[in-house]
Amino acid sequence: MAVTDPGSTDSLTVHIGPDGELVVRGDIDIAGGPILDAAIVEREAHGAIVIDVAEVSFIDSSGLRSLLGASRRARERGQVVTLRHVGAEVARLFEITGTTEQFVVTEGSAAAERTNDSDDE
User: Fold this and answer.
1) Which of 15, 56, 93, 105 is the most buried (most CB within 10 A)?
2) What are the tens digits of pLDDT across the range 37-70?
3) What pLDDT, on the 0 to 100 scale, is given for residue 103?
4) Does the global pTM surpass 0.85?
5) Are residues 104 and 15 in contact, defined by beta-carbon separation less than 8 angstroms?
6) Which residues, including other chains, have CB under 8 Å from residue 38's CB and lie 6 or more apart?
7) What is the mean pLDDT of residues 8-15?
8) CA pair distance 112, 107, nearest whole angstrom
9) Which of 61, 57, 43, 50 is nearest to 23 (CA)?
10) What is the pLDDT of residues 89-113, one digit of tens each?
11) Are 94 and 65 in contact (CB under 8 A)?
């Protein structure tokens, strides 16, 4: 499933990955924020929110607002938002704004994380 804003120039796309994560590609900005918001809200009905941002090259304050809103709603449900593959641009925004602790940040896929967890036992 892909979610895009028909009025946009496809600056942001979101689709559901094989592990149920939201895979985001493009810029999370004033145009892309509402696209991400809609995808997150729809996915919240299915459980924990995991967002793969490996292909996000730019995020602005409106994009940050989208992610923080998802984090707030997750906390209200007793959950957290997990961000995978956070690149330098996205990490820098979190560092500058002091919002890194609002998320769980991981590097791999859910399958790899399950394998690593079973190796620890």
Assistant:
1) 56
2) 999 999 998 889 999 999 998 999 999 999 999 9
3) 96
4) no
5) no
6) 3
7) 76
8) 9
9) 50
10) 899 999 999 999 999 999 864 444 4
11) no
CB 14 within 8 A of CB 43: no
Percentage of the chain exceeding pLDDT 70: 80
- Lateral strand order in the sheet of 12-16: 2-3, 12-16, 22-28, 49-59, 81-84, 103-106
**Degrees to nearest 5, angle at CA 94 with 88 and 97:** 135
77: which 2 tokens? 């449900």
| CA–CA dist 52, 47 (Å, integer) | 16
* Cβ(50)–Cβ(20) below 8 Å: yes
